[in-house]
Amino acid sequence: MKLFNDAVVTVVALSLLVGVLVGGYYVAAYVINYLMSVEEKQLEIIVMSILTGLLVIMLSSMVTKRKQIRNKHNQMFMNKVDVYVRFIKEWSINLSHNIKSDSSHDSIFEDGFYDLERELMLVANDEVLKAYIEFKECEDDPETKKGLIGRFILEVRKDIGNSNIGINQDDLSLMFLDMTKDKMGTRFHSEEVSGHTGVI
Q: Which residues does the chain have with pLDDT short of 50?
């Protein structure tokens, strides 16, 4: 029974193939005969019309593709900006809370911040990541770490297209520290928080 069904399917498929070939042959023959019967001027008009149609189709396809790519890039850019904004906001709060490893609340907060670090790792460009890594690995005096905060934010601003004319990393580090809670600008010099990951 299976052999019979396979045979029927094969016959039907071959019949369809023959039908397509025969139909294509007659269509091609008709087109060739028609083109041979028309005058040279008419033939030029037909060819130009076909070429114009193909050109319009190609241009429309290119415009649509470019629009899709542009929309995709815009969406990726907005996602990157969103990650940067959320990261800097949470980083500011992170620093101001002086996370303690023996606090359950701070442990949850720290986990959330690490999630943002993973997002940053995926969307940030090389210079932003290098600036942040350098900050985390820095064991120098607080003033050096202040400068690294400013450098990180400066690289973020470059990545999203800001010119940074007339502003430097010291300006940005001071602005960042002013945003933190509990007057983090004065806490910045406290040595008790200098050893925490993600905090000063």
A: 99-109, 181-200
Taking each helix axis as running N to C, give the angle between helix 126-137 and helix 104-123, from 0 to 180 degrees, rounded to the nearest 10: 150
Question: For residue 101, what are the CA distances in angstroms to 108, 145, 181?
Answer: 10, 21, 20
Helix axis angle for 142-159 and 169-179, nearest 10°, is 100
CB 112, CB 87: distance < 8 Å: no
The distance in angstroms from the start CA to the end CA of the chain is 79
Look-up of token digits 């406290």: 190
CB-based contacts of 158, cutoff 8 Å, min separation 6:
127, 164
The pLDDT of residue 186 is: 47
The confidence score (pLDDT) of residue 102 equals: 42
Alpha-carbon dihedral sign for residues 14, 20, 23, 27? negative
* Helical (H) or strand (E) element with 163: none
CA distance 31 to 61: 27
pLDDT given for residue 130 in this prediction: 93
What lies within 8 Å, CB to CB, of 34 at 6+ separation is none
CA 65 to chain centre: 17
| Rg of the chain, C-alpha, whole Å | 33
98 vs 134, 196, 200, CA distance in Å? Answer: 20, 8, 8
Tell me 76's DSSP state: H
